[in-house]
Amino acid sequence: MAIYFPFLTLFMLIASFSCNAQPSPGYYPSSKVATINFNQAYRNLWGPQHQRFDQNTLVLWLDRYSGSGFKSLKPYRSGYFGTSIKLHPGYTAGVITSFYLSNQEDHPGYHDEVDIEFLGTTFGKPYTLQTNVYIRGSGDGNIIGREERIHLWFDPTKDFHNYAILWSPIEIIFFVDDVPIRRYPRKSDATFPLRPMYLYGSIWDASSWATENGRYKADYKYEPFYARYNNFKVGGCTAFSPLSCRPPSGSPARTGGLSRQQVAAMLWVQKNFKVYDYCRDPKRDHTQTPEC
Questions:
Q1: What are the phi and psi torsion angles at 185 (to 5°)?
Q2: Is 148 a catalytic site residue?
């Protein structure tokens, strides 16, 4: 259920935020889900020789030979999925560091996916965080992405920051350090993922598209490229949970949606840091994305 507020009140709240200082969202869903050990929820999926543990941190790396990825032990139909990530500094063009939900292995060519992806960059330019939602898409060129991209208000290579996906039966909310950066509501069954998905993380070479539409490629004279993950949080309903199971709430309202302060924080992000919105791309065929 969406929560709506008088426009003037919301405008005054947004106006009170500095364009540089992260606003308080007023509610911290990451604090409601316990941190778990990696092995309690995940396993290596590929590239085991490019994956190691440094105390409580999982380190993945990409070089000219391979990248690496992990996968949850169970599929989920809803939940809060979070981790803290520290990105590789310097030249990372073509390199994708990701944290996402997918059922591609169960539904090849017709899968659902909910993505947090960090698009590699060149010297002196900021990382781009891309969120995306696929609905019964395919990987053969027919897939219809619903991409939004932002630049972050901090340097994600200096320290760990929390990134999360909240997937409930009514909406998907993406969070950065508990600040909601995007809300994707369920407007129809045709535009919302409803089948169980596994949770994944990975680092891989996407030189064909990742950095400025493929203009800059991965350059392995800078290898290896590292991605560091810790503070794993998984809370929700597996594919085998009873129908009465409900995922954690992303706001003080148990029914879903966002509080007034959370909405204001999200609009602050979108006003100051959003650099792409698929719904506003004149080159897109919006008959394929009716939610726009």
A1: -80, 155
A2: no
